[in-house]
Design a protein that fits this description.
The chain has 13 helices and 19 strands. The protein has two domains: about 5-130 and about 305-330, NAD(P)-binding Rossmann-like Domain (Rossmann fold); about 135-295 and about 345-394, Dihydrodipicolinate Reductase, domain 2 (2-Layer Sandwich). Helix 1 (about 15-25) crosses helix 9 (about 310-325) and helix 4 (about 85-95) packs parallel to helix 5 (about 110-120). The chain is of the alpha/beta class.
């Protein structure tokens, strides 16, 4: 097999910030060939297409045309979370393998359908949760599973973005649509990262979810207010009785030293872990202010390549697709790569549970929504029927 022939569905902000480097300027670029691109936004597609020489005949506004008219081995699906399923199923049925950025889908029904279809057709799915490749997360996982910290008891994680991420009044706009923060929440955008990082470390299944949301800053924005959450505190109770709080938001002042301020603490019966995720590299002092640079996530090397775990995480998935297509992957390894933990199923479940909790919550005049507890196994059975039991019984 020569280069992996890749079709790219979606060329917006996630490609601009991460994946264009993976495709064209990373150590993995020599193993792949971007054959075609697709986007409803012609400006996004033209920007990427012109920069990297994608012919006009290989630019599409419909993923079905991209898949049907260009010989491909795999597709990277960079669409909004609620639009992962349709192109994923279509690609799998066309005999292609897929790479999806977190989450697998924004709801468990879609995630289940993608996973089930891939297994039914014998195809490969990889989901890019890049924090899994952060060396701190990997080390914490190894030590936790070795029993170094005893039984998990309690944990707090936070991940807070600058206001510019959710503010449609910010110039230049950080994301491409003015209604981004009203159609999305900190849960779908940020909690999913931290939930997956925690579940990756502990390999525990979540049982119950309850969320409290705050709508105070975004509705007060001018001239364009946003009907959305500033902050959400999601409480998750796991199968061993331990509890984890994941606090996420996107309304801290733009003067913050980093685009995302984040950290975590995990407490066990025999010890604890402080994950200083807020200190990923070095501080720089320049005329514009004091900033945190994160070369561990994305490192611009002198030779022009971009490295770091932000490249390694999706890059390893592409390498696995190549291995899968050339010579196959041993059954034991493949089963592990395609199990619910690896494909982020429980992270999608936690986030849908948090959203359901908020939807059924009580609203106060102070802009606080206090959600009700959601039993995740019941939610699964409600959404996908008796098949939902397999995720907890296996």
């Amino acid at each position: 097999m020569q280069r992996l022939r890749l079709g790219v569905i979606g060329t917006g902000s996630v490609v601009r910030e991460i994946y264009e480097y993976l495709y064209f300027k990373s150590e993995y670029s020599s193993r792949i060939s971007v054959e075609a691109i697709c986007d409803h936004n012609p400006d996004n597609m033209k920007s990427i297409g012109d920069r990297y020489g994608i012919p006009d005949s290989r630019r599409f506004d419909n993923f079905r045309d991209l898949i049907g008219k260009v010989p491909l081995d795999a597709v990277a699906i960079n669409t909004p979370d609620n639009f992962h399923k349709e192109p994923a199923i279509y690609a799998l049925e066309a005999g292609l393998d897929i790479l999806v950025p977190k989450p697998t889908a924004d709801n468990v029904r879609d995630a289940h359908e993608i996973i089930s279809k891939a297994k039914q057709l014998g195809r490969f799915v990889g989901v890019d949760f890049h924090k899994r490749e952060d060396p701190r997360i990997k080390e914490a996982k190894a030590r936790f599973l070795n029993g170094d910290y005893g039984k998990f008891q309690s944990s707090v994680w936070y991940m807070l973005d600058k206001l510019m991420v959710s503010d449609p009044n910010h110039v230049p706009r950080f994301f491409s649509t003015p209604d981004f923060a009203s159609k999305n929440t900190p849960v779908s955008f940020l909690t999913v990262h931290m939930a997956d990082a925690f579940i990756t470390i502990t390999e525990l299944k979540p049982l119950f979810v309850k969320a409290i949301g705050y709508k105070q800053k975004l509705p007060a924005l001018k001239p364009l207010p946003v009907d959305g959450y500033d902050l959400v505190d999601t409480e998750i109770i796991f199968e061993n009785g331990g509890v984890c709080h994941i606090i996420t938001g996107w309304a801290i002042p733009n003067s913050a030293h980093a685009l995302t301020v984040q950290s975590a603490r995990i407490i066990g019966s025999e010890g604890m872990i402080d994950l200083n995720l807020d200190m990923p590299g070095y501080h720089e002092v320049i005329p514009d202010g004091i900033f945190e640079r994160n070369p561990m996530f994305r490192n611009f090397e002198p030779n022009g390549l971009v490295s770091g775990y932000g490249m390694r995480s999706p890059g390893q998935i592409l390498e696995n697709i190549i291995r899968f297509r050339i010579s196959g992957i041993h059954d034991a390894e493949l089963n592990k790569l395609m199990d619910p933990f690896s494909l982020g199923f429980f992270s999608s479940l936690v986030c849908e549970g948090a959203h359901r909790s908020l939807e059924t919550g009580e609203n106060s005049k102070a802009g606080v929504v206090t959600g009700k507890q959601v039993i995740l196994k019941d939610l699964l059975i409600q959404e996908i029927g008796e098949e939902g039991r397999q995720y907890y019984d296996s």
